[in-house]
Specification:
eight-stranded mixed sheet, alpha/beta, 16% strand, Barwin-like endoglucanases, 1202 residues, single chain
């Protein structure tokens, strides 16, 4: 009877594992009894293995959660808070009751200081909804709706559930926080190179490859359901090389395993690029590589050289506007790049640069034509042999210094190399120019017979970026480096691009991750692999591909009612509001290029972020010190339009950005929602700072801030000697299990599990769209996310009466990618506060928009489709189309309300909105979308979707069988019976430009800040020194200890923190937190396997058991990330508190080049570009524990670290 069942229902797991597998959920008597894998995926073509079997042991254990003791069964409230609430509520209305609590410092401190210490009591839904709604109404009215924030990651894993919270927040003017950049899953190199957040081949395309390079990706462990494509293609003869510092599960499958020193991957990639350029572009020219690079990359584009003393430095790309007459271009000549024609070296104006994307039609394509008259052009890659002079050009070198345990080489910080140049007469006089190709070859240090020093004639020369140089830096033999590079390129040459690199997130988690990735991407572009089936860049991290994206966006951010929504990049937000910036020891002087002008940028990283917000590059949250609901009335009284008023007030100081004083009470975030996430138990870098500053509870921060240590304080940000703690008044978490974040929350709401609700799920690993289905009703008092937020919206609408009515909300948004605004700042960095220019919304500062909100109608708007889709249409990534027909269709599918608007009452209604509006699931919309793109490119693309124009995928269709998505211009690959999905395919084969400055794949990044930091071209940058061991080494007392680099890869028995507390998974491992350490390092400090250890630095401390293993190299340790703090964690000997989690020893350190905006592809987009939460550069002290204390005695506040 254990396996008996009444019915089988299709569902999947919304767990951000990226795999998106279809499962049979077996139900007996209304109880889920077990799950097994579905086997009815649509079949692949005959020459390709089928997708199934898909699944893993983690997914097969999920049903344990439904009825486990760890299930959140009822609404829970912190006892101290609910007692205060009930006392005040007895005599006051809801909003006044909340005000009485949070405006009294003693009462607020009373409940905040016990966060994380248990003390929950069961409550009724009506009561918790009222508390939450009252807090939201009070906060919006008193401080502003932008003080209400929400964090939820990866919408693709459960789109409707994400949209539930984000729609509510967007309707009331709250802020949705980003996740992809915060998780450090966002590879900034992708936006920099392609103008695309991330687009990658599906896993089935691995089978089309003939050379697979797994670089930091542990496919068998972290991509289990897709690993069969990897093992199957090896039987076909495909070579497999694995690059990983530890002996991972993937290494077992390799023909060759290379294990470079962790963090030196850029050195390895640059050395391989050196070999490829030298042997396939110079000495032995590949005709395929030459044609590919000439047509689809920026190699032929011309770069101005700027005089610097006796030499030159690479400057910005030459533009049409530089010339007298602007090459005849009246539209956006500042954004049209130039090249030489191969035949006569006359200047050419190639189609496709970003200036052609906006303001005109028909020439935004990469046809090899001159845009002036349409004549065909062959662009010159090099000026060698036809140069007018040889210029000595200086290139930065950063490898001359490195933190402890990393190898520094004896080379100058500036390397001068000769480059062939010609002179171009500009409107400002003669300018020396070189091609990107010639600069790049010089950057790689290849001797071309031009004379001068710092170039290598042999691969064995000790010159930066040769294999011999890389051998010293990485520890990988020069022979292996050269051989792998040569074989990778030979294969790509013979197969026209079927060499592929599968990348893992760990490579992207270093501070200089974009240098690592650009070094690898350079190899792929040099070899013509991008956009070719079986080749390309396969960056697999979180479940980032929300395939029906344009159908989901209006639902998720209430774009059917209000535009624009408030969105914020989480890295900058948490860096500021958890006060991690106060502990920053890194400044820009340690990061800038030796070629940069001294004082070109602020010294402080937080100052760089404030400057970026001020110039409209990054978003702000909260936005202004003033309540945005009161600004419109002041503008009206002053007789000014709102944007002009805000600009004038900012210039005069009458208004200030909140970012300039994040520790002032008026600038705190006040209410926070967390759903579909374990923020404090998984992604919260700087965990202990969260506890101290955001929550105001016990914490384990061991270091002192810059005020106590006499550090240089920021110039742009106000300093408070005593930083405020407990900034958040309310933390609400929705979850089905009692996670670490739940433990620290004020209110915990029980959500339905993935077998108890209806939702949608897609992945980049395969082309299917899957449903989550309610196999059983939500157990106990749990509800789906949609029902939870619907209930909050209903109560909010009622409570808002008398406090908030029809309000005018002033919304600031940064200059956005994929809008005409990305052409805002074509040349130098201009800061209006420093007098460089005037503050002009949308040009030199953020956009300013007046949004009308109807707060009492929040519930009505939440549950119906608004009028803006009919009036303004829909779209995405810079194209738009009419959507009136789809709105009418939804009225028929979902029914209409009294106003005649389509209803969105249920989660299935919400799913139908997504499916009906998206080109990926509605063939009619796909044809419209391709037609809209064709107007920009001047080419017909509708043939890509015509065959499926009549397809309309409904939610019930998905429950019957997985459905393959329809090809759409939202993405750069195709789904058909003839080609597997491969990113860049439509760019290469349909001649659609990449969404970059040049319209091509870019080796060269010419923004002033990119050049100032020495990253115009890919270079090797060693890991940074975070200085987190200073001042804490002495805490190890006399015991043997060791400083080790601290890495946090993805684990085997969990998906992030999910399953880490699942009994079935716990029985397959040691059942609690572990840290892996090498046998050599363990022996040196007297450790044996399974010893309890403490791992600490200035950021905090954690406790775990040691796994001593020969597969770990000396000098590093690994703690598989998101091992929950709630399972078998003893106390810390240093802090006196229970041990922390992996993020207890991390802290955010943002990189200024990720703050750039208003500049073509280097413009902000939600989860597209922005500061990234790296964590791999940290070092920790490891020591054996003397005593294991399980902290079973009653808690004493005196134990808190001060």
């Amino acid at each position: 009877s254990r396996w008996a069942h009444d019915k089988v229902v299709r569902s999947t797991h919304g767990v951000n594992c990226t795999c998106s597998c279809s499962w049979k959920i077996h139900v007996k008597g209304g109880i889920v009894t077990w799950e097994t894998q579905q086997t009815d995926y649509p079949r692949t073509r005959p020459d390709l293995p089928n997708h199934e079997p898909r699944g893993c042991a983690r997914g097969a254990s999920y049903s344990w959660y439904l009825y486990s003791a760890n299930r959140v069964k009822y609404p829970l409230v912190r006892r101290r808070l609910v007692e205060l609430w009930r006392a005040e509520r007895a005599t006051k209305a809801p909003v006044e009751a909340w005000a009485a609590i949070v405006e009294d410092p003693a009462k607020a401190r009373h409940y905040k200081k016990v966060r994380g210490l248990g003390g929950f009591v069961r409550a009724q839904w009506e009561e918790v909804e009222e508390i939450i709604a009252a807090a939201n109404v009070y906060t919006a009215k008193t401080h502003g709706p932008d003080r209400i924030v929400g964090f939820s990651p990866i919408p693709a894993m459960s789109m409707v559930s994400y949209a539930a919270g984000s729609r509510y927040l967007s309707l009331i003017g709250g802020v949705n926080l980003s996740f992809y950049d915060w998780y450090c899953d966002l590879p900034p190199a992708s936006p920099q190179t392609w103008g695309e957040q991330t687009d990658v081949p599906e896993s089935a395309d691995w089978y089309n490859s003939t050379f697979l390079l797994l670089w930091g990706s542990n496919v068998p462990q972290t991509r289990t359901p897709d690993a069969h494509f990897y093992t199957e293609v090896r039987y076909k003869g495909t070579k497999s090389v694995v690059i990983c510092p530890d002996y991972s599960e993937a290494a077992k499958f390799a023909d060759l395993w290379l294990h470079p020193k962790q963090g030196t991957d850029a050195a390895l990639a640059m050395a391989m690029g050196h070999v490829i350029l030298k042997e396939f572009h110079l000495a032995g020219r590949s005709e395929y590589f030459d044609a590919y690079c000439r047509k689809t990359t920026d190699m032929p584009m011309l770069v101005r050289l700027d005089r610097r003393g006796e030499a030159f430095v690479p400057g910005r790309l030459l533009r049409a506007a530089d010339l007298d007459g602007a090459m005849g271009q009246a539209n956006n000549p500042d954004w049209k790049t130039l090249a030489f024609e191969e035949a006569d070296l006359s200047l050419a104006l190639p189609n496709g640069s970003i200036g052609f994307r906006w303001g005109e039609s028909g020439k935004w394509n990469i046809e090899e034509k001159d845009a002036r008259d349409g004549h065909e052009v062959r662009l010159a890659l090099t000026l060698a042999g036809r140069e007018e002079a040889m210029a000595s050009v200086a290139f930065p070198y950063f490898g001359g210094s490195a933190p402890a345990t990393f190898h520094a080489t004896d080379h100058a910080a500036m390397l001068h190399r000769n480059v062939p140049v010609r002179t171009v007469q500009t409107k400002d006089g003669p300018v020396q120019v070189a091609t990107v190709f010639d600069l790049m070859v010089a950057n790689y240090g290849i001797d071309r017979g031009f004379g001068g020093g710092n170039v290598a004639a042999s691969l064995d020369d000790d010159i930066p970026y040769t294999p011999a140089w890389a051998e010293a830096v990485t520890g990988v033999s020069r022979h292996h480096i050269a051989t792998v590079a040569r074989q990778f390129a030979e294969n790509a040459d013979k197969t026209h691009g079927k060499s592929m690199v599968i990348l893992g997130a760990g490579v992207n988690h270093w501070y200089h991750m974009d240098m690592i990735y650009r070094g690898i991407i350079n190899m792929l572009m040099m070899c013509g692999c991008i956009g070719q089936s079986g080749g390309g860049w396969s960056h697999y991290v979180g479940q980032e591909k929300l395939r029906p994206q344009t159908g989901w966006l209006p639902l998720a951010f209430a774009l059917d009612w209000n535009r624009p929504p408030r969105q914020m990049n989480s890295t900058s937000f948490f860096y500021a509001h958890s006060s991690q910036w106060r502990y920053e020891k890194m400044d820009t002087s340690a990061l800038l290029s030796p070629l940069a002008d001294a004082g070109a940028l602020p010294a402080s990283l937080i100052d760089c972020n404030v400057k970026a917000e001020r110039m409209g590059w990054l978003p702000s949250a909260p936005q202004l010190e003033a309540n945005p609901l009161g600004i419109a009335a002041k503008a009206e009284a002053a007789g000014q339009a709102v944007p002009a008023y805000v600009a004038a007030q900012l210039a005069s100081g009458g208004l200030k950005l909140s970012a300039e004083d994040p520790d002032a009470a008026q600038n705190f975030p006040r209410n926070m929602f967390v759903w579909r996430s374990n923020l404090l138990g998984a992604s919260g870098k700087g965990h202990e700072y969260f506890l101290k500053y955001l929550l105001g509870t016990d914490h384990g921060v061991l270091g002192k801030d810059m005020g106590h240590e006499g550090g240089t304080k920021p110039a742009e940000v106000a300093w408070h000697d005593e930083a405020p703690t407990g900034k958040l008044d309310l933390l609400v978490t929705l979850d089905f299990r009692m996670s670490t974040t739940c433990v620290y929350s004020d209110i915990v709401l029980p959500t339905a599990t993935w077998y108890e609700k209806h939702d949608l799920n897609t992945s980049d690993m395969h082309p299917f769209i899957h449903p989550l289905s309610a196999a059983v009703d939500p157990a106990w008092e749990s509800r789906s996310d949609w029902e939870i937020y619907k209930g909050i919206a209903r109560t909010f609408s009622r409570i808002a009466e008398g406090h908030l009515g029809r309000e005018r909300d002033v919304v600031l948004t940064p200059i956005m990618h994929d809008t005409a605004g990305e052409l805002a700042q074509p040349y130098d960095v201009a800061d209006w506060k420093q007098g460089d220019c005037a503050p002009v919304p949308g040009r030199t500062m953020a956009n300013v928009t007046l949004v009308e909100r109807d707060y009492p109608a929040t519930y009505a708007r939440f549950t119906s489709l608004g009028p803006l889709l009919g009036k303004l249409g829909n779209g995405g990534k810079g194209i738009g189309w009419n959507t009136e027909h789809e709105v009418a269709l939804l009225g028929g599918l979902n029914g209409t309300n009294a106003e005649g608007r389509p209803r969105i009452e249920t989660d299935i209604d919400a799913a139908e909105v997504i499916l009906s509006l998206a080109p990926e699931t509605n063939g009619e919309v796909a044809v419209k979308a391709w037609a809209a793109l064709g107007k920009q490119t001047g080419r017909d693309h509708t043939h890509l979707a015509r065959a499926r124009e009549d397809d309309k995928i409904r939610f019930r269709d998905l429950q019957a069988q997985p459905r393959k998505i329809i090809s759409s211009p939202t993405w750069s690959g195709l789904e058909s019976e003839h080609v597997s999905y491969n990113a860049g395919y439509t760019n290469v084969h349909e001649l659609i430009p990449w969404r970059t400055l040049t319209g091509r794949q870019q080796f060269y990044q010419d923004h002033a800040w990119m050049r100032a930091f020495g990253e115009a071209l890919a270079v090797y940058r060693p890991p940074i020194d975070t200085h987190t061991l200073a001042g804490v080494r002495g805490l190890a007392d006399e015991r043997p200890s060791m400083a080790l680099n601290f890495l946090t890869p993805h684990q085997k028995w969990g998906i992030h923190s999910t399953y880490s507390d699942n009994l079935l998974m716990l029985t397959l491992n040691r059942g609690g937190p572990v840290v892996w350490i090498s046998e050599i390092d363990a022996k040196s400090i007297g450790l044996v396997d399974n010893d309890w250890i403490e791992v600490f630095n200035a950021n905090g401390s954690l406790t775990a058991r040691a796994v001593v293993s020969q597969r770990i190299p000396s000098g590093m340790c690994m703690m598989y990330h998101a091992q929950e703090k709630i399972v078998n964690v003893p106390g810390s000997e240093i802090t006196g508190l229970r041990g922390g989690i992996h993020n207890s020893v991390t802290r955010v350190c943002p990189k200024p080049t990720h703050m750039i905006g208003g500049y073509a592809q280097l413009s902000y987009g939600f989860n597209y570009y922005g500061t990234v939460g790296s964590n791999r550069d940290e070092f920790v002290v490891v020591r054996k524990m003397l005593e294991v204390d399980w902290k079973e005695a009653p808690h004493r506040e005196a134990e808190t670290v001060k």
